[in-house]
UniProtKB/TrEMBL annotation:
Keyword Transmembrane: yes
Protein name per its UniProtKB record: Uncharacterized protein
Source organism, top-level taxon: Bacteria
Residues that span the membrane, as ranges: 102-120, 127-143, 201-218, 239-257, 290-312, 319-336, 342-360, 372-392
Keywords: Membrane, Transmembrane, Transmembrane helix
Amino acid sequence: MNFMVKNFMRPKNLGRHFWLCWFLALLTIFILNLSTLTLSPTVWMDEVQIVDYGRTIFDPSTDWSITWLVSENRPLISVLYLGNLLQNLTYQIFRSPLGPRLASSFGAIFAATVCVGFLLSLKTPKWVAFVLGLVLFLDPIFVSSYRGARVDCWAIGLCFLTCWLIRHQTNSLESSSSITKPPFFITGLCISAMLFTWPTAIFLTPLIATEFVHFYYLSQKSKNRTAFEIFPLDPSITLLLAGFTLGLVAISLPVLSELVSGIKTILAFSKSDSIVTNFADKVKSAPRQFLTSLSLSPFLLLGGITTALILTSRYKQKSFVTLLVLGLIIFSSPYGNRFVYLIPYLIVVIALLFVEDSSVQRRIIIYWLKRLFLVALLIWSITISLGVRNIVALTQVEGRNPERILEFAEAVIGEGDHKVLIPYELYYAGRDLGWKVYNFFGYIQSPSDSDYKKFLSQMDYIITTDRSDNNNHFRNEFTFKGELNSLVENKQNKFFFGGRPFPVYYVYENSMKNKIDSKSR
């Protein structure tokens, strides 16, 4: 056993086939997860909103959407569209939830791989970079994001790639080698693409800033060099800004009109009373949401934050931005898919803990504590992401199977351009059957609101998970047509480790509207 531990801590042969071992590890994990990819998590709000954003960005005049603004009678358009567009394209190719989830899984592979490359450029020991790359790929919060077809993974991957490119130039400067121009231009392109992948990618910019500030500091210390090498900052900034501007223009031009409209919507929303109410609600729920995220990934969150505090003297910039982003996330909305943007910072500061420091390395207790911490990180991630998640999914196959939702929708309503107000889980089924599917974006102020009533009267069907009289305000116009109970029979396992199958769905038909429509045909 002692021999195995020593070989794990100091793998002599890892460098010979490092990247081969890395991709074999990723391939193994990917294959293990593939059987439950469409089962865990079940289809959910963020997933289908992202796919629909990718549809509406180039069809803004569409008369249906899962992010419908009732008062304005139009869909909400997301102009930061690169990730959304990719998810919609993969859905159209596969015609299944598998498409967007595969795309996000490949995004996670990309993010973990460039993360390892960046850590190696920081002079992190190879085995540490390897393990931390796996910790990122298997972290329960990150896994929940990419398995749920979110696009955070692509933004994180572009962030790590940008940092890697800048660090490569920094290392060239430190070794007195000549720096090259193209990486700074590519860096600018990567930053623009990252910011247009998903709105909260803005949280990743401080990490990129620390890398560029470090490069700037070293460049200013350069002496006795040629003109370009004495002042590498000026052409570097010029090339970076050129790449960023070109990327920004190229990405913005196809959606320029929607970009202007989107800015107006954001400004109007920022002046409304609802933003104050929503912000107050988020502040109140912050402690609970933080504890929920902490329960998913306690070792990484607590260990990484503690490491950032420990390293404040040695790595001031990295520690500062880590704690800054932590504060911003807690202040804004500390739920799991927001905390995913803290993970890159935590991975980096933990890696820096292993960068050579002779005064610390001599302390045998610290030496072993760091390694045990890394092992605990990996074991926790493997247990939750490969073990618990897949076990829960496989024990709830019947209650999570999206094909069953499709069969139910086809049997009760059928194909056609029906207008249907749906829960998010029926989005894929509705699109497959040619429905015009709707759900609300934001809050309905009152069920008696005239816009709300008018909107409901236009629906052919309403599918809901709530059959109580207090919440169904359409009983006079709609008649009950059928239900689907997808809950697993093993009720003790119903919420095992948070595992939730599909709920019960109730279908109501607008019989009056459908009678009028049938007579007019």
